[in-house]
Amino acid sequence: QVQLMESGGDSVQAGGSLRLSCTASGYSYSRHCMAWFRQAPGKEREEVAAVDSDGVTIYVDSVKGRFTISKSSDKNTLYLQMNSLKPEDTALYYCAASHQYCQEGSGQGLYNYWGQGTQVTVSS
């Protein structure tokens, strides 16, 4: 059974940094994609960043240059380093995993497994 568990969410001031982690258990596919999504109150869930088994990364335009997605060397932990945080980054952040390579613009439908989310709040 695949389980994803996020951690690292917190409340920070604008301009600050956070690192989110997602620990995966029971998930091992030679071809895969893992991603971070976020959902703010009253808004749709948005794909923030993704990385596939070949190391190819995808970012939404609003976080390019500020956020970095990466995986641990054992591939069991997914990270999202978030720098220069803005109030508009405030959201519940979810980890997701797929059996396929990442596809830009694919949305939630590509992903087979989801974590419960970790809250990020950025104050001005």
3D architecture notes:
This protein is mainly beta and 124 residues long. 0% of the residues lie in helices and 48% in strands. It is built from no helices and eleven strands. It has strands at residues 3-7, 11-13, 18-25, 33-39, 46-52, 57-59, 67-71, 77-82, 91-98, 113-114, 118-123. Strands 2, 4, 5, 6, 9, 10 and 11 form a seven-stranded mixed β-sheet that branches. The chain is globular and about 40 Å long. It starts with a strand and ends with a strand. The model has no long low-confidence stretch (mean pLDDT 94).
Beta-strand percentage range: over 45%
Instruction: Using the alpha-carbon principal axes, give the shape.
Output: globular
SSE-based structural type: mainly beta
Secondary-structure element order, N to C: EEEEEEEEEEE
Tally of DSSP β-strands:
11
Tally the helices: 0
Q: Can you describe this structure in just a few lines?
A:
The protein has 124 residues and is an all-beta fold. It is built from no helices and eleven strands.
